[in-house]
Amino acid sequence: MATVVQAQRLEKTYRAGDVDVLAVRGVDFAIDAGAFVAFVGPSGSGKTTLLNMIGCLDKPSAGTLRVLDTDIATLDRSAAADFRGANLGFIFQDFNLIPVLTAYENIEYPLLMVQDWPADKRRARVTELLAAVGMADQAGKRPDQLSGGQKQRVAVARALATQPKLVLADEPTANLDHATAYHILELMKKMRDEFGTTFIFSTHDPKIMGEAEVTFTLEDGRLVNIGGARA
Ligand code: ADP
Ligand code: MG
Questions:
Q1: Buried-exposed string 113-150: b where 16+ CB fall within 10 A, e elsewhere
Q2: Model pTM greater than 0.70?
Q3: What is the residue-averaged pLDDT of the chain?
Q4: CA distances (Å), origin 27, targets 23, 30, 76, 141
């Protein structure tokens, strides 16, 4: 099975005033293509820092991080943006939908602005994704007309629009009640099954982490446990 993310002695240090904050302290892990993986741990344990590095939004201070066979330290800002646009999808805790656009238009947005898809292919892709996430009958609604769970369904569809190899979701269920959170993770898993996309999410909620097939537990920037079978 192909490895999509590989970290070796990966470190991230932030400079905050006069002090160094060791956010990630030498972690090693590998994630296989098609895996459904969670980084778990309390607030401040380094989950966002790790996801930001995997998402090429931040660079390692030491060690190596390969994402889809690219050493991300070698990418400058513009190459990192191109890499993200071509390969990655993102789902956020607070949904980050564009308020003036409908559900349909939010999903279409990356196909217009990130990758320049022709109109007929765009329409087919958005329609397919609206159906896949169970939102076909809500296509014309704006985010303020949707529940939190519905907004996150749209965000999952938008993250998948450009057919990324890897979707990153930083605490995607933190603003949802437990039942809705569970349904969103089930939906993400269904999308993994349907499209073969690797999903990596983070959570500090022990009730939710059981939904992952592989869990990487962080504590104070260190990887303290790897749970579940490698997919
Ligand atoms: P989590 O997502 O698990 O809550 P983070 O990755 O956000 O953890 O943070 C890990 C550690 O790094 C924390 O101590 C946090 O305060 C620190 N940190 C995160 N981002 C920055 C930053 N930009 N500057 C300084 N310290 C940071
Ligand atoms: Mg975080």
A1: ebeebeeeebeebbebbbebbebeebbebebeebebbb
A2: yes
A3: 95
A4: 11, 10, 23, 43
Task: Read off the pLDDT of residues 45-94 as tens digits, 9 standing for 90 and up.
Answer: 999 999 999 999 999 999 999 999 999 999 999 999 999 999 999 999 99
Q: How far is the CA of 43 from the centre of ligand 2 (A)?
A: 6
Å from CA of 84 to ligand 1 middle: 22
* Domains in the chain: ranges and CATH: 3-228 (3.40.50.300)
Does the C-beta of 49 come closer than 6 Å to ligand 1?
Answer: yes
CA–CA distance from 167 to each of 95, 105, 189, 198 (Å)?
Answer: 14, 20, 11, 6
Residue 30 confidence (pLDDT) above 90 = yes
What pLDDT score was predicted for residue 206?
A: 84
Which residues have CB atoms below 5 A from the ion given as ligand 2?
Answer: 47-48
E-assigned strands of the chain?
Answer: 3-16, 19-32, 36-40, 62-67, 70-71, 88-91, 166-170, 198-203, 214-219, 222-227
**Does pLDDT of 187 surpass 70?**
yes
